[in-house]
Design brief:
The structure is a single chain. This protein has one domain. Helix 1 packs parallel to helix 5 and helix 2 packs antiparallel against helix 5. The relative contact order is 0.13. By secondary structure, it is mostly helical. The protein has 7 helices and no strands. Helix content is 68%, strand content 0%. The chain starts with 12 loop residues before the first helix and ends with a helix.
C-alpha cells in the first residue's frame, strides 16, 4: 500500500478511466488537427501543445532530481520515454520529419506498452508519482496521434530506418551506463519487477533480441500503409 492512502492497481477503475480519457482525447485531437491542418490556427495550437509538453517534461525531470525525491534507479532522464518526451515537444514545435517519426514509432510502441502494462509503484510521493507517470504518457500518446492523423506527418521507410538506428544507439549507450551505475534504465539489464509483455519474451539477454525483432517487424507493419498510400497518390 502506498503512502497517503493512494494506491494503483493495473486494470482497476482508475486505470480504465485514464485509458478511456486517452482514447477520447486522441480522437478529438486527430479531428482538430485535420480541420486546422496547414493553417495559422493549426500552427499556433501545435506550438502551444509543444510548450505544454516541454513544461510538463522538464518540470517533472527537475522534481525527481530534488535530493528528497532523488532515486538513482529512476530519477536520471535515461529512459527512452524521457528522450521521447523531449523529442515530442520538438516535433510539435518544428514538425520536423525525423522528430515526428520518432514520436510516432516510440509513442505507439514503448509509450503505449507502458500505458497498457504500467510498472507503477506509488512509494515516495504517491500523488506526484501518479501524476508524473500518467500525465507524461498520455500527452505523448495525444501528440503522436495529433501529429500523424491530425497534421498528416506520416512515416516513411527512411524514417523507419532512422528510428531503428537511433533506438539501437540509445540502447547501447544506456546499457553501458547501467553497467557502470548499477541501474536498469530502459529495462536493458533486467526485466521490470511488475508483470509486463517482456515476461513472454524469455530471459535476459534474449528478450532484448526478441524486442528488437518485434520492433523491426511491427514498425515495418505500421510504416507500410502510409508508404503504400503515398505511392498510390
Amino acid at each position: 500500500m502506498a503512502a497517503a492512502g493512494l494506491t494503483f492497481h493495473p486494470y482497476g477503475i482508475t486505470h480504465w478511466v485514464v485509458l478511456m480519457a486517452t482514447v477520447v482525447g486522441s480522437v478529438l485531437l486527430a479531428r482538430l488537427g485535420h480541420r486546422h491542418r496547414d493553417t495559422p490556427a493549426g500552427e499556433t495550437f501545435s506550438r502551444i501543445f509543444a510548450i505544454v509538453q516541454l513544461t510538463v517534461t522538464l518540470g517533472f525531470m527537475i522534481i525527481w532530481l530534488v535530493p528528497a525525491l532523488f532515486d538513482l534507479q529512476q530519477s536520471l532522464p535515461l529512459h527512452l520515454s524521457d528522450i521521447l518526451r523531449l523529442v515530442t515537444a520538438y516535433a510539435l514545435w518544428s514538425r520536423r520529419p525525423w522528430a515526428s517519426a520518432l514520436t510516432y514509432y516510440w509513442g505507439l510502441t514503448f509509450n503505449s506498452q507502458a500505458m497498457l502494462t504500467p510498472d507503477l509503484h506509488l512509494n515516495v510521493a504517491p500523488v506526484l508519482e501518479f501524476a508524473s507517470y500518467w500525465l507524461q504518457h498520455v500527452l505523448v500518446m495525444w501528440a503522436a496521434v495529433y501529429l500523424t492523423w491530425g497534421l498528416g506527418l506520416h512515416p516513411t521507410w527512411r524514417s523507419y530506418r532512422l528510428a531503428l538506428g537511433v533506438t539501437v544507439g540509445w540502447a547501447a549507450i544506456v546499457f553501458a551506463i547501467n553497467r557502470a551505475l548499477g541501474t536498469n534504465y530502459g529495462y536493458l539489464n533486467a526485466k521490470p519487477v511488475g508483470a509486463t509483455l517482456l515476461d513472454l519474451m524469455g530471459e535476459w539477454p534474449w528478450y532484448l533480441v526478441v524486442v528488437l525483432a518485434l520492433l523491426a517487424a511491427f514498425w515495418a507493419l505500421i510504416t507500410w500503409p502510409w508508404t503504400s498510400r503515398a505511392r498510390a497518390r
